[in-house]
Amino acid sequence: MTATLNVHGQDNLVTPGFYMPNRLSIRTGKALHHMLEGKVCYLVDSTFPPAPEIMEYLKTKDISIEYFDFRHTTSRAVREQILTHMSAGQSVVFLPGQVAKTRGTLADVPSPFLRHLGSLHIAPVPVFLGYYGKTITTLYREREDEDCCEEFHILPKLSPGPQTGERLLAAWLEKGEELFSAQPLLNESLTTHIVQSMRAHPNVEMVDGMTGTKLPNFKLLGVAMTVARVLRKRGDKRIGVILPPGPGGTIGLVSCLLAGITPVMINYASSRASFESTVRQAELKTFITARKFMEKLPNFPWPPEEQLILVEDLLRTLSKPALIANVLLAKAAPVSVICKMCDTDARRGEDEAVMLFTSGSSGEPKGVALTHRMVLANVAQCSCRIPLKDERFLGSLPIFHSFGLTVTLMLPLLCGYPICAYPNPTEARTLCELVKKYKLTLLATTPTFARAMLRRAGEDTFASIHHFIVGAEKLQPDLEEEYKRKCGVTLLEGYGLTEATPVCSLNIKDAPMVPGSAFYVPGMVKRSIGAPLPGIAVRVTDVDDDTKELPLTERGMIWFRGANVFRGYVGKPELNDSIFKDGWFKSGDIGQLDLNGFITLGGRLSRFSKIGGEMVPHEGIELAISQILKLPPEDGVKIAVTGVVDAQKGEALVLLSALPEHQRSSQERAILSDLRAKLAERELPNLWAPRYLVPVEAIPVLATGKLDLRGCRLLAEEALMEE
């Protein structure tokens, strides 16, 4: 079946003009040629030729081609070539050549060409081509596929000026986001899609890693349908789910969705104050949990018994005939029948689907309502970027964590992949055994948990792994190198925010080179957090002035826009006003992009101190001090840098230390003096030297392994208040 072609933006045509497409097919090339009335010359790099069928077509039609070789030709010479044709009334169209590229790639134009063409000083007309399918796994394609829609857009001509390559990339990103966000599938019901997938893959199993019990999708769905009927009668708008990853957590989540109730995923590693804040903000009166799980968390501030629905007790009281009937329906009934029974389309699109709360690393937890649209978008973005084949997922991250909810539960549920679930991501030895026993292929975790697994892994532990994804904290180079050396595994660093459901960018393995072409668009770039997923646009602004937009390759505040991005924190209008501007979400992270779109972070704004007008990075100082002190990463977090108010310079740096040799305050001056000298030897600015040393028993760390930034700051303030 041939893809449908939609052409837009004819009003933006300029004749003669210089046209820069992100990619071009024969069909769209013919359309552009026709729109320009045949007065076209095609610009081709002889070392980067288009596909043979395109070149054959151009030659048989005797169409004008201008060749160049950017590696041996100056920008000035190419500029003269282009201007010669334009002065004769011909438009010039750059033809992207054959290039090795990964799934979900934005453009077929490698960064060297963007740099070279950007130095021509001829304002181009950006052209965007994208392919959009009708299923979660085909919603975005970088090449024509069956039953997809080919969207071809002529964009407004860029204004003359420097950094043309950066502005061209920005135009492509924004158009790609606009087209992805307009896909009708995203306005559908997450619940309906879950039912469709579980019904389409009834025998795909979830393995309980604790017991080895295997539950096929049809049984999980049948039980969830039965529980949903009980929940619906209670009349709750939202229900708290206090369960780990596994069959129980999955049934709790899916049951709520089928009942038209928002599941609020409770962080069972949080403090009493954080839990009480969550309950208050979400207006929770009912909670689903399990008696066995309660026994494992005796110190958790459990709600009163009358507010608890215990899974074991509930299952015992369910009507056996109703349960058997629903299991049979889930295995054999048409999807339409199940969806009608549960009224799964009652909530969809922008309706609230799941509620999470941020970790509270910098203050009180904030409520994030993930809509049906957001979850469908982010799962589609991930599945259209990661080359998924015959995957088997490890689900060990807590499902109150957006990474665990979306990547290791929702994605396999919606795409029909088996899951091996285990409730504790810190039990590294058991996780390694499960990976090996069940030949798991996709593992997503944090660097902290990955480091613990590495210590217990053998050479062949991860032999089955296709994709080992890490996120939620910075990936240290030593961990990346050790995984490669010891296990032959490439760690794929990604980046996400709870507010973005969460995945925004991801590194994936490079595609094999195309015969006859020396160029490629990388799948991964070292020390980066990857390229934006399909349908996500990025903007960079001045750190101190949100209204001042910077070129993408300059360091500044990162902003995101996309269907996966939320619309604001629950009940916090004033905060929301400060983090949204013209539909863009302020991430709080500082960084920049390269011309392939890969993002490199410099840290969170909350992890910088402004001293004497300079932005000083806490993470950079921590890394330098760790190297100076030769601190083994496997020993855990022993130092942290935070900032306190300083009347003279705005802020002062404080080094928190849990090292035994730093526990005597009488040595503070000598230790700081020695660190200052060694930082200077590394040619680091004097501003990077901590002013204060505060000995602590332990560095505050959240359950995910990330620093508790608020806790660190409070420790510093309390210690210095005494002086």
Helix fraction, binned, reads 25-40%
CATH superfamily of the largest domain: ANL, N-terminal domain
Radius of gyration: 27 Å
Structural class: alpha/beta
CATH topology of the largest domain: Rossmann fold
Q: What's the total count of β strands?
A: 33
Going across the biggest sheet, name each strand in turn.
9-8-17-16-18-19-20-21-22
Largest sheet: 9 strands, mixed
Number of helices: 22
State mean pLDDT (0 to 100 scale).
91
How are the elements arranged and paired?
Layout: E1 4-8, E2 18-21, H1 26-35, E3 40-45, H2 52-60, E4 64-68, H3 75-87, E5 91-94, H4 111-118, E6 125-132, E7 149-154, H5 164-181, H6 190-200, E8 205-208, E9 214-216, H7 217-234, E10 238-241, H8 247-258, E11 262-265, H9 272-282, E12 287-289, H10 291-296, E13 308-310, H11 311-317, H12 320-332, H13 335-342, E14 352-357, E15 367-371, H14 372-383, E16 393-395, H15 402-415, E17 419-421, H16 428-437, E18 442-445, H17 447-455, E19 467-470, H18 477-487, E20 491-496, E21 503-506, E22 531-532, E23 536-542, E24 545-550, E25 556-562, H19 573-579, E26 580-581, E27 584-593, E28 599-604, E29 608-611, E30 614-617, H20 618-629, E31 639-646, E32 650-657, H21 668-681, E33 692-695, H22 709-721
Parallel strand pairs: 1-7, 2-5, 2-6, 3-4, 3-5, 8-17, 10-11, 10-12, 12-13, 16-17, 16-18, 18-19, 19-20, 32-33
Antiparallel strand pairs: 6-7, 8-9, 14-15, 20-21, 21-22, 23-24, 23-25, 25-27, 26-27, 27-28, 29-30, 31-32
Helix pairs in contact: 4-5, 6-15, 7-8, 7-12, 14-15, 16-17, 17-18
